[in-house]
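Holo prediction — uridine-5'-diphosphate-glucuronic acid.
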Amino acid sequence: MLGTGYLGATHAVCMASLGFDVLGLDVDPAKIARLSNGEVPFYEPGLEPLLRKTLASGRLRFTTSYEEVAEFGDVHFLCVGTPQKDNEYAADLDYVYTAVTTLAPLLTRPCTFAGKSTVPVGTAERIASRIAASAPAGDDVEVVWNPEFLREGFAVDDTLHPDRLVFGVDSQRGEQAMREAFAPVIAGGTPVVVTDLATAQLVKVAANAFLATKISFINAMAEVCEATHADVTKLSEALSHDSRIGGRFLHAGLGFGGGCLPKDIRAFMARAGELGVDQALTFLTEVDAINLRRRARMVDLARELLDDTMAHRRIAILGAAFKPNSDDIRDSPALDVATRLHHAGADVVVYDPAAMDNARIRYPDLTYAASTLEAAHGAHLVLLLTEWLEFREADPAVLAEVVAAPNIVDGRNALDPDRWRAAGWTYRALGRP
Ligand code: UGA
C-alpha cells in the first residue's frame, strides 16, 4: 500500500483482515512509527481495533523503504493524495509521480500496479508508460485502475463491503490479478464492473461530481425556499419518496467540504478544459458556487441575529470537522464560517468532539473551548455547523441557562425547531422559515 493516509491505512488494515499479507509504505517516519505501534493517526471509527488485531496476526507491517516494498508486493496499490494545486483548479499529482518514479526502477519481478488515488483521466496511461520505460520487469508489470469510493467515518465498512468494485484494465491478466486481490470481497456478493483504464478513472470523479451536484441542487432549492418562506426539509422529504430521486445526499444545509468533493469537481473541470470538453462540465462551476454561497448566507444570518453588530459579540461554533465522525478539517465549511466571523470582528469560540487538534494547528487565531457548554457560555449566538450526535442531542434548556442570548442557527437542519423554540430560543436555519 503506497501511502498510509485515510485511504491507504484503511485499505492496508482491511486487506490484512481479509487474510492478505500487507506492507504499508509512507514517506513520513512518524506516521509509520505510530501505525506500527497500533495507533491510527486520524479519527476513524473502528479502524484502530482492527489495526491492532491485524498487526498482532503478523499479516500487517509498515515501512518507509521503497526497496522493501518492491521486493514484497505482488500487487502495489497507489493510495497517495491528489490535493488541489495552489491557486489552480487542477489536481496536484506530485505525490503520484514521486511514488511511481521511485518505485518503478526497483520493480524486478512480475507484479500489478493498481491505482486507487483519485486522478485526472489519462494519468493511469501516463503511469503505465513511465513504468514500462523504467521498470526492469518491463511488460511484466501490469497497470490497472481500481478507484475507491470509501467515505470517511465509514471507511472500514465501505472497504470491506463496498457498493461495487471497479476494475479498469487493458488485459485479461490485469482483470485476473484484481479478481484475486478482491476474491473475499467478491465472494461476499459485491458487484464487479470491468472497464478500460479511462472509464475507471472517470467513474470516480463522475461519482463525486454527481454527489456534489445532488447536494448543491437541494441547497439551490433552499435558497428558493428562503425567498418564499417554504421549508426545504419538507421539500426534500417529499422528493425523497420518488425512488428515481432518492433521499440520500439530499440534505440541505451548509453544504459540502472535505478533501474530496470540492477539489474533485474542480480538478474534473480543469481536466475537461484540457480535453476541449469544458462546456460539458460548466454546470459544475454553478455547483461549486451554490455550495460556497451557503457559507456566505450563514454569515449573513449570524449578522442579522446579532443586529448587525459583530464587535464584542461572542459566537459559539459547534463543529470544526467537515462532517461528523471525522477529524478532517480540509475545506471545512464550519471553519470557513468561523474564520469569516472572526475576521468580521466577532469573538468566535469553536468546539468539536474530534477535530480540535487539527483545527488549532491550522487556525491558531480562533479561540477553542473544551465542551459544548464551555463554548456556549456567555454566547450571544450559537451556530451548529457540523451535525455531531452530541450536538443533535444537546438539551436546549441546559444551553439556554449558560448563553447570554438564546439565538441559534442550525446550519445542518439537524435540530427540532419546536423543541428549541419551546425552550425559549430564537431558532433559524438554512432553507426554513
Ligand atoms: C466522498 C464520497 O462520498 C466518497 O464516496 C468518496 O470515496 C470520497 O469522497 C473520496 O473521494 O475519497 P467524504 O468526503 O468522506 O466522501 O464525505 P461525504 O460523506 O461524501 O460528505 C461530503 C460533504 O458533503 C460533507 O461536508 C457533508 O457534510 C456534505 N453533505 C453530504 C451535505 O451537505 N448534504 C448531504 O446530503 C450529504
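READOUT: The CA atoms of residues 74 and 430 lie 51 Å apart.
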